Amino acid sequence: MKPINLIYIHSHDTGRYVQPYGFAIATPHLQQFAEQGVLFRQAHCAAPTCSPSRAALLTGQTAHNSGMLGLAHRGFVLHDYSQLLSHVLQSAGYATVLAGVQHVAKMPFADPAAELGYEQIIAYKNEDEIASHACAFLREKTELPFFLDVGFNSTHRRGAAFVDPPQQLGDPRYVRVPAPLPDTPQTRQDMADFMMAAHRLDQRIGQVLAALEESGQAENTLVICTTDHGIAFPGMKCNLTDHGTGVMLMVRGPGFAGGKVIDALISQIDLFPTICEVLNIEKPQWLQGKSLMPLLCGETEEINDAIFAEVSHHAAYEPKRAVRTQRWKYIRRFSERKTPVLPNIDNSPSKELWTDHSWTTHELSEEVLFDLLFDPNEANNVAPNSAYAEILQEMQKRLDTWMQETADPLLQGDIPVPPDGITTSVDAYSPDGKW
Q1: Which of 8, 34, 30 is nearest to 206 (CA)?
Q2: Which residues pair with 152 in a beta bridge?
Q3: Rg of the chain over CA atoms, in angstroms?
């Protein structure tokens, strides 16, 4: 039996805003990929901020257990880089290759192979170069099974514009804006630009998938396609509602075929144990997630009765935690600040619209409870309603228990910035500290 290869394709800030999730966004390669594999409709990140999310997925642990409590380029690090998936696969005899963004370690690296576990690093920032070099690797013949990590930035913002394309505007005439935002010319243009960036992302993912087919190794390769968290719009990225934690997740390969759609509630920390099971590798003791295979085999309809998510540091400090079941979402803030932390929202025309209309004075609740069945947009906080007192207590207890069982450092007080770390004032407007 041939060993199974692994390709992990990931993007920045894409959420579920692609065609396979029902959005009118031209991503035909992702649509075809979903129809060939398995799509998870209720997949969530463990932390809706870049480095903590990626660290959770690649170590199979909560962000606070992995140590990645903030952004890698701002000084935060993992407790143990040997716990990365790349190191585990390398120890199992896999050739390990990184093409593009990784964001779990600060660049440049002192010793990239030792730190990140990749024998070969194609650290190009240009999106076309990332795709072309990943394709070139796939066209090479290798005797070892391989792990190819391909990271794209296309839907990430640089300033208020999307990385790709940087200056080209999308057509806003027939666009539906993201659910938390009002339908205005300003937000439609913003979303049109995102859609264009998502289309370019899809084209490059399509190139990688085509190269895999040409290599003749598609049948014995597990391909995971996902993103780190929600899109970079107000009320989404860096928020613990589903707008921030909801991610696309499509998997194709051995055991993942047939265009299946699964509604089970899963966290990205469930991917590491799944990979170990599919690749027949011993599961490390530190893993906290659960394999997805019982869902694929029809043994159960759910593997998690609840999932959890967190934010500590992003550009600025904004500690909050959440627990989600199929029916309920509970979010608790651990800060005395009662108004939005603006530097944790990427600059954008949509952000300007809200701030021009007194968003900066909106008061935030210490805790919120949403009934996801009747309030899927998470707009009506029922925590103050006595009719929901029993549910509120249950969700509070779930969160408290999780924080205690995982030794969340937030229980001991504020989480400090590393000695050489960078943080932005909560009173600033932009991530760079400017107003």
Answers
A1: 30
A2: 11
A3: 21
